């Protein structure tokens, strides 16, 4: 079978390595992929947002199955365009990817169907938004409507910060057209949990839970990033809470999408906060999380391709989705300066014996040398019976990978470890 994976980061590298475990897979193309995954896939220089070129490539190369991993192509209708050409895909169509593509859509969906989330108001007029803030509880959370690379969320600790955030989004267009509509919502507290779930639009099979570390610095300080590390499972996510989430959030969300005529197939990502008033949805993503995927998929014992195909064919109910009971930890090695400005082009060395634990996010190949080529450069994942063991193993491997200006957090998993002792 010929497989195509759209995307080029650590998440895609993880998906590709997992797909390769299926003996029927003869070739995997990554569009565009990156130099660090050249041993695992044939990288093709087509950008993940170039839908026309992606479809043309898939048709010309007789691709049997396409996995569309990032949010942008999903929201742009990559799955729709591929399916029109008869190519089976993993991922939602555009009319369902809107669950991530528009925060206004997802908030209104949750309100309409009684799915627990932070209380909110939507604004398309700056003066009205500013007037609302005068009596809003502080801290407050301000979100730009569209995709903003995870940066369109501002938690304002003071009224002045809140006003400034509204002006920067709606007047200065800090996030472009995403700021035409904004959501102002209640500030929630509690541990955060990421739950990725396979769904074929009828059945929901959640994957092992995970915990992201979004801030750049140790102790959850500094700027928000795409994620500096993850652990799975998430200790706060007990079996009891999982049952409650299935009942009050996961199934109602899939049902709500069906009722709206927007059946969702693929991986639905629930960003949850376990508040004193129960689990609530912070955000939906229409795709695998990054770097959640780097800890979740290595724990998957079932065949990934089979499960993905079941979401496409509507046979997920009969398909086993089994995870090992072990722990995983992924530490992201980034370029110093990320998520702000950073230098790239430094040579890196990844010892052969640990290459299978490394998921490369940002690298290029030049004259056979692997060079850093992004903010997040790679992730190192380890699995162990205990979380402590997984963390130790990952940091030992990180210590053996070197490139100039490498930066990583030194406390990935620390909060999870403390939670087990609470
Ligand atoms: P998002 O891009 O929607 O995942 O938001 C980024 C981060 O902002 C989340 O991971 C949360 O830590 C935080 N956040 C978003 N919404 C809220 C909220 N209503 N209350 C508290 N924190 C929030
Ligand atoms: N790690 C968060 C995300 O993928 O959106």
What are its keywords?
5-stranded parallel beta sheet; 30% helix; 4 domains; 422 residues; Dna Ligase, domain 1; alpha+beta; 27% strand; single chain; 6-stranded antiparallel beta sheet; binds adenosine monophosphate
Describe the protein in words.
The protein is an alpha+beta fold and 422 residues long. It has four domains: 2-93, 3-Layer(aba) Sandwich (Rossmann fold); 119-186, ATP-grasp fold, A domain (Dna Ligase, domain 1); 192-318, 2-Layer Sandwich (D-amino Acid Aminotransferase, Chain A, domain 1); 327-421, Glycinamide Ribonucleotide Synthetase, Chain A, domain 4 (Alpha-Beta Complex). Helices cover 30% and strands 27% of the residues. It has helices spanning 10-19, 51-60, 71-75, 78-84, 94-101, 103-113, 126-133, 159-170, 239-259, 293-296, 304-313, 387-398, 414-421; strands at residues 2-7, 27-32, 42-43, 65-68, 88-90, 120-123, 140-144, 153-156, 182-186, 192-199, 204-206, 211-212, 215-217, 221-224, 229-232, 266-275, 278-285, 327-335, 358-360, 363-366, 369-372, 376-384, 406-407. The strands form six sheets. Strands 12, 15, 18, 19, 22 and 23 form a six-stranded antiparallel beta sheet that branches. Strands 3-2-1-4-5 form a five-stranded parallel beta sheet, with helices on both faces. β10 (192-199) and β11 (204-206) form a beta hairpin. The chain is globular and about 60 Å long. Glycine (GLY) binds at residues 150, 212, 227, 285, 289-290, 292. Residues 118, 141, 150, 153, 155, 185-188, 192, 214, 271, 282-283 line the site of adenosine monophosphate.
């Amino acid at each position: 079978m010929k497989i195509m994976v759209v995307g080029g980061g650590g998440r895609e590298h993880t998906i590709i390595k997992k797909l390769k475990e299926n003996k029927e897979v003869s070739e995997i193309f990554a569009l565009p992929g990156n130099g660090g995954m050249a041993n695992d896939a044939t990288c093709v220089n087509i950008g993940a947002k170039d839908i026309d070129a992606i479809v043309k490539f898939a048709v010309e190369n007789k691709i049997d199955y396409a996995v569309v991993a990032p949010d942008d192509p999903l929201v742009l209708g990559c799955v729709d365009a591929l399916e029109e050409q008869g190519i089976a895909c993993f991922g939602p169509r555009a009319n369902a990817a809107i669950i991530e593509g528009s925060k206004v859509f997802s908030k209104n969906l949750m309100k309409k169907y009684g799915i627990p989330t932070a209380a909110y108001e939507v604004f398309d007029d700056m003066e009205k938004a500013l007037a609302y803030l005068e009596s809003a509880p502080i801290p407050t959370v301000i979100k730009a409507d569209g995709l903003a690379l995870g940066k369109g969320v501002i938690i304002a600790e003071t009224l002045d910060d809140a006003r400034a955030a509204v002006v920067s989004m709606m007047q200065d267009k800090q996030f472009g057209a995403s700021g035409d509509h904004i959501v102002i919502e209640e500030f929630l507290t509690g541990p955060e949990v990421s739950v990725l779930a396979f769904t074929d639009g009828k059945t929901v099979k959640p994957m092992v839970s995970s915990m992201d570390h979004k801030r750049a610095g140790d102790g959850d300080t500094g700027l928000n990033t795409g994620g500096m590390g993850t652990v799975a499972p998430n200790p706060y996510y007990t079996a009891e809470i999982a049952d409650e989430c299935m009942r009050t959030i996961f199934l109602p969300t899939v049902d709500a999408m069906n009722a709206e005529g927007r059946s969702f197939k693929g991986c639905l990502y629930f960003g949850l906060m376990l508040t004193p008033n129960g689990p609530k949805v912070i955000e939906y993503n229409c795709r695998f999380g990054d770097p959640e995927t780097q800890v979740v998929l290595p724990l998957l014992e079932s065949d990934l391709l089979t499960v993905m195909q079941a979401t496409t064919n509507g046979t997920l109910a009969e398909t086993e989705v089994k995870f090992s009971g072990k722990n995983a930890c992924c530490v992201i090695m980034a370029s110093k300066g990320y998520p702000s400005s950073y230098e790239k082009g430094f040579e890196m060395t990844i010892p052969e014996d640990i290459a299978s634990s490394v998921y490369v996010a940002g690298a290029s190949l030049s004259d056979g040398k692997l060079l850093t080529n992004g903010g997040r450069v790679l992730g190192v994942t380890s699995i162990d019976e205990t979380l402590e063991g997984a963390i130790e193993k990952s940091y030992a491997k990180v210590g053996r990978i070197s490139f100039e200006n490498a930066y990583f957090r030194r406390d990935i998993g620390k909060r999870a470890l403390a939670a087990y002792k609470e």
